[in-house]
Amino acid sequence: TQLLEQSPQFLSIQEGENLTVYCNSSSVFSSLQWYRQEPGEGPVLLVTVVTGGEVKKLKRLTFQFGDARKDSSLHITAAQPGDTGLYLCAGGNTGFQKLVFGTGTRLLVSP
Amino acid sequence: DADVTQTPRNRITKTGKRIMLECSQTKGHDRMYWYRQDPGLGLRLIYYSFDVKDINKGEISDGYSVSRQAQAKFSLSLESAIPNQTALYFCATSVGREQYFGPGTRLTVT
What we know:
The complex is a heterodimer of chains A (111) and B (110).
Chain A: E1 5-7, E2 10-14, E3 19-24, E4 31-37, E5 44-49, E6 55-58, E7 61-65, E8 71-76, E9 85-92, E10 99-101, E11 105-110
Parallel strand pairs in A: 2-11
Antiparallel strand pairs in A: 1-3, 3-8, 4-5, 4-9, 6-7, 7-8, 9-10, 9-11
Chain B: E1 4-7, E2 10-13, E3 19-25, E4 31-38, E5 42-51, E6 54-57, E7 64-70, E8 73-78, E9 87-95, E10 98-101, E11 105-109
């Protein structure tokens, strides 16, 4: 069974701080996605990375896929209250679109 | 209108009752999924369907069944609900690697 562990589980910071969320596995994935979920809603895709070492930026968010394609990180610069939510990583395998979801990181950004 | 809808949004039921959660999509995607979400466990796959004639068990299918009535409709049933099935349930569709989620159904089994 493939597992994705996220750390930290919970993060409470002040507006303007930087943070990094980690997603780790002992398994290799062909792709890695990050989703954000807000209360009362389903997860929404932020980014997909497919190449080992790949880095993608989405405004203040930077996503990196590990060289060995077993881990990923999400870095947020100058966090804002609108970044508050549950962040989920999800690993995909070739051939079909079943995803393995991480355990989640709940982020709270206070003004 | 939302592309993926789920009904009901909230449900409280008693142990032993049969309950059905429904999912409809207007995205025209063939692939549909049912997940449950529990705190600290992320999303776990219950069942998935790649087209109307294709139904597959996920990692936690025991105690659940599904029906794919049409390309746009995928229902999840709990034949005899038990308290540890209390969770948030999500339906999703996909094309390529991206999955699109409904708003979820919060189910409480007492």
